[in-house]
Amino acid sequence: MEIIFPVSCFNQVSRGRDFVSRCCVIDFIMAILLFCLYTSGPYRIIMRNSVLGMMGVAVLLAACGGGGGSGGKDAAQVPPAPKTYVAAKATVGDYYTYKNTFQALEPTPGVARESYNTRLLTSVSDDGAKSYRSSTNSPIRNGNDFLYTTLTMDFDQLGRWLATTRADCRITPAPAQYFVAPNSLSVGASWQYSGRIESKCALNPATVQTDELNAKAVAEESITVPAGTFNTIKITQSEQLRDDAFLYSMEQSCWWEPNLGVEVKCVINTTLTETGTSRKEVSVNTRELQGYANQALARKADTLLRYTGAWKGRFQGAAPNEGVAGDCKLLLKADGTITGSCSGASVTFNLTGTISANGQLSLALGGAGQFTGKLDNQEQISGTWSTPDGVNGTWSLSR
């Protein structure tokens, strides 16, 4: 077969690029030949044996599913690649507050216990590594007081957990491991971990656990928690921690907000088996986001729970002919109500009031007067106080 292609033919074909995407390669070649046949004017397509030529065309088109524009109804469709999300760069002052609910299931079901945890971002390096100050308030004495604990958590630029420090104790994974998920994530991604978790407190010998886990990002899901409704990636994880005395088996499902780079909700089912006796304890722990602030994304949902707990501090001021000063103790409850008292050498008074979700505080003195102030940061509140008889001053409280 002798073929002579006119330039004008290629010019016309080039206008229909979408045609190419709907044909297989052989379909497109035959389309060019037929197109040229009807549009090339003075040029010729000479087929020395027209019968064999047409049979060849038929065979080639049949191989592409009949020459149809879509390549036939059985042509394989290539699904789009999952979208890859990258967490926004963290900023000092970002915070995330969670409510944790722990429920013992076996051998004896227990009463659900609640606690409130706030992660406050305290440092960010140029490469994206960061540290959180994690504070937990656990209600005690029927909610009339709180047990307050703090620790520091360090992460590298990929989102891997490097260490946790609490008082004189330090916990380190070797190698580093993802706390929940990496900062860059798409549905279908999976990761494994095999390593050791070492705990060292003061002068005591270090204890070591082996750690094995498998995790996978299984689907995109929308989920609603007290902090709002979020588009998340659901992550499932199986983990086993072993030491000489116990085996901890955990099945975990977390809903990860990939733009914020944090979990919105986690449900963790744990089975603790004593090695020597095979005695088992089964429990479930649920963690839900209550409030947050992310400066890079200009997103936030402030919550009263970040203030919950016991606070203490001092007040000072000036009364006619004398100075006044003393100590204060306040209890901030989960509903934003405040009770407490202050006492000094020459004055004692009770305080009641409220704090708003944005940190604005207003307290009434037992007799007359008021304390007003605003949250300086997650760990400190300060303001001014005054009474109708001209006594006034300043005050500050910390956890």
Please outline the helices and strands.
Blueprint: E1 2-3, H1 7-13, H2 17-21, H3 25-39, E2 45-46, H4 50-63, E3 85-86, E4 95-106, E5 113-124, E6 130-140, E7 145-155, E8 160-166, E9 169-174, E10 177-178, E11 184-185, E12 190-201, E13 207-225, E14 228-242, E15 246-257, E16 262-274, E17 280-294, E18 299-301, E19 309-319, E20 322-332, E21 337-344, E22 348-355, E23 360-365, E24 370-377, E25 380-386, E26 392-398
Antiparallel strand pairs: 1-2, 3-11, 4-5, 4-17, 5-6, 6-7, 7-8, 8-9, 8-10, 9-12, 12-13, 13-14, 14-15, 15-16, 16-17, 17-18, 19-20, 19-26, 20-21, 21-22, 22-23, 23-24, 24-25, 25-26
Instruction: Work out the number of β strands.
Output: 26
- Helix run count: 4
- Strand order in the sheet with the most strands: 4-5-6-7-8-9-12-13-14-15-16-17
Distance between the termini: 90 Å
Q: Please report which band the strand proportion falls in: under 5%, 5-15%, 15-25%, 25-35%, 35-45% or over 45%.
A: over 45%
Q: Based on CA inertia axes, which overall geometry fits?
A: globular
Which class best fits the helix and strand makeup? mainly beta
Please bin the fraction of helical residues: 10-25%
Poorly predicted ranges (pLDDT <50, ≥5 residues)? 1-71
Key phrases:
399 residues, mainly beta, twelve-stranded antiparallel β-barrel, eight-stranded antiparallel barrel, 4 helices
Describe it for me?
This protein has about 400 residues and is mainly beta. It is built from four helices and 26 strands. The relative contact order is 0.10. The strands form four sheets. The protein has a twelve-stranded antiparallel barrel. Strands 19-20-21-22-23-24-25-26 form an eight-stranded antiparallel β-barrel. A two-stranded antiparallel sheet has the order 1-2. It has helices at about 5-15, 15-20, 25-40, 50-65; strands spanning about 1-5, 45, 85, 95-105, 115-125, 130-140, 145-155, 160-165, 170-175, 175-180, 185, 190-200, 205-225, 230-240, 245-255, 260-275, 280-295, 300, 310-320, 320-330, 335-345, 350-355, 360-365, 370-375, 380-385, 390-399.
